[in-house]
Write a structure and sequence with these properties.
alpha/beta, Rossmann fold, seven-stranded parallel beta sheet, six-stranded parallel beta sheet, 13 strands
């Protein structure tokens, strides 16, 4: 069988992206990667040495990009959304020579903007892309409305590095059998739409009501300087994934209070690591990794009062009940892996 050649036109790389690309490489695929600069709010240190050809996006214009991708002769092109018009132009130019696959993570909401996208898709998106690779059901509904057929769509576009977080689970599980650490964990950027101010308000309400757990927050962002300091709250700033284990060892329950979160790979990561979770109803990944009452709970985004009550509920559970939730989270998380990601992408050939 001939070696599959794949060009990936990516936006901002993250640590978990590499796990998927390594799984793809393990199938024998030859990979070309074009990517935007690393986000300064998440300055991951990434080793891309296993990729056959790496092209920083800011080093090529449209013509240069088309030349490089054409020379690579891909069988398949995977493109992150349609924000980068040069990426879309390359996919359109090479249609017929390669299978161009669109990835998108927005939910179908029926907004005016999405209705316009639906109406013009036959003349824009479908002229560039033959198939779609999306995270979950909400995004699949969007892809269907853009004119993709059921057979042209795959779900599972995002995956955590399950090997790494499964290793964390094995380490953490031994410690937590004795006693789950009485700390909540927030892992994400310090920007308002992540719900950080709701989280800190809810935590204050929780403590005022007699709650004794702490809150550890990991991340950075444009509103880091506005972080709330208080009794029981600790801020770590940005932490490289390779240095996360001590923090995970110190925490018991994961909270993500986002107002807008098309997916949320951290939910998958924390599920595999065995964390009970409190998630807002705006998070796409909850459809796959959270079952109400079995491994955590959902609360309305933006509602600090309800979040505080969910904090009180989950910290009132016994250690045995929390450990059962931990196992349930882990089992849900292991339903999707980078290897499955690679298989689903290749199935679009």
């Amino acid at each position: 069988m001939a070696r599959v050649t794949i060009s990936i036109l990516y936006t901002e790389l993250a640590d978990y992206s590499l796990a998927c690309l390594k799984a793809l490489k393990a199938t024998g695929a030859k990979i070309q990667l074009v990517h935007w600069p690393i986000n300064p709010e998440a300055p991951f240190q990434l080793d891309l040495s296993f990729i056959d050809e790496v092209i920083p996006r800011d080093t090529v214009d449209r013509d240069g990009l088309l030349t490089k991708v054409s020379a690579f002769q891909p069988d398949l092109i995977l493109c992150s959304g349609w924000m980068d018009k040069d990426y879309v132009a390359v996919c359109r130019k090479l249609r017929g020579k390669a299978i161009a696959v669109l990835s998108l993570d927005n939910h179908w909401t029926g907004s005016a903007k999405q209705q316009v996208a639906r109406l013009v898709a036959p003349f824009t998106i479908r002229r560039a892309f033959a198939k779609a690779f999306v995270p979950g059901e909400a995004q699949r509904q969007y892809a269907l409305r853009l004119g993709f057929e059921e057979s042209e769509i795959r779900t599972g576009f995002y995956s955590a590095d399950t090997q790494k977080f499964n290793g964390f689970y094995d380490r953490l599980n031994l410690d937590k059998q004795k006693a789950l650490p009485k700390r909540f964990l927030y892992l994400g950027r310090y920007v308002e739409h992540k719900g950080i101010f709701d989280l800190w308000s809810a935590f204050d309400k929780y403590r005022q009501a007699g709650g004794d757990w702490e809150l550890w927050c990991v991340g950075t962002g444009e509103q880091y300087a506005q972080r709330v300091e208080g009794e029981g709250i600790r801020h770590f700033g940005f932490v490289q994934p390779s240095e996360m284990l001590p923090i995970l060892q110190g925490c018991g329950v994961y909270i993500l209070p986002s107002h807008f979160e098309p997916w949320g790979v951290s939910v998958h990561e924390m599920a595999v690591a065995g964390f009970p979770m409190l998630l807002s109803d705006a998070i796409g990944a909850r459809e796959q990794f959270l079952i109400e009452g079995e491994n955590g709970a959902v609360f309305p985004s933006g509602n600090a009062d309800v979040l505080a009550r969910k904090m009180q509920w989950i910290t009132g559970l016994s250690n045995e009940e929390l450990l059962q939730m931990s196992v349930r989270s882990h089992n849900l998380g292991m339903r999707h892996t980078p290897e499955i990601w690679a298989d689903r992408l290749l199935s679009l050939l």
